[in-house]
Every structure is written in C-alpha cells, then in structure tokens.
Amino acid sequence: MTTTRIKTIAYWTTTLLGPASFVMGGIIQLTQSDQAVAMMRHLGYPVYFLTILGVWKLLGALVTVIPRTPRLKEWAYAGFCFDLTAAAASHAFVGGTATDIVAPLGFLALVLASWALRPASRRLAAAPVAPRAVETDAAWAATVAASTR
Question: The whole model's pTM is what?
Fold first, then answer.
C-alpha cells in the first residue's frame, strides 16, 4: 500500500470516529434526551444550550465531510476543539470522574488527527507571501540605528 493510500485511510477513519461522530451527539442534543438534559443540569448549563450545541455539531460534521469548503472546514474543526476542551473543563470544574474528563480529550485527539491528515483538496490554500524588499530592511535598520543615538 502506498503512503498516500495509508494517509487517506487514516484521514477517513479519524474523520468518521471524530468529527462525523458529532452527528450522533448533535441529534441527541437536539432531541433533548433525558440523559442530555440531566448532563446539562449537572454541568450547570441551561437546557436550551442543547439546541445551540446540537445545531452547530450537525453543521460542523456536515461541513467536514462534504467536498471543497476549506474555510468552513477550518471553522468546524476549531468549533470541535472549543466544544471538546470546554466539555473536559466543564466536567473537571464540577468534580467529574477521570473518564468524564478524558473522554472528550480522546475525541479531541481524533479531531486533531483528522485535521492534520486531511488531503490538500480540503485545506485552505496558503496565502501568498509578499517578497521582502532589501531596501525596506535597510531603511528599518537605519531608522533603528538613528533612534538609538
């Protein structure tokens, strides 16, 4: 198997286990299951927060698997990172078990792996870098030298 093929398989595996798993969480939160409501109350958040999280999780999961939309993908991955680190911190702040705290961080590892392994077609193009003018560097150096006298 080629390196490219292995990377592609690793990308889709981590994407299905990480970001795409947000579909299940989003549905559970949108339907406001008894377990989800109990967890929100335990963590001290209002129940309506489930709707907000559910919508964003579903949209983020959708964006990560559809082709193109690299800028939206960056936002989705960032949102997943915010969600998962906030989940771990929330559990820690209310005295949650080690499992409650570590579980979101395990999913975070999958999300980060998916982000790192994504193919070039799913990445933002690098911004062009303006060439640096030697004259600009020389002018800056002269300004600094003059100001230190």
Answer: 0.80
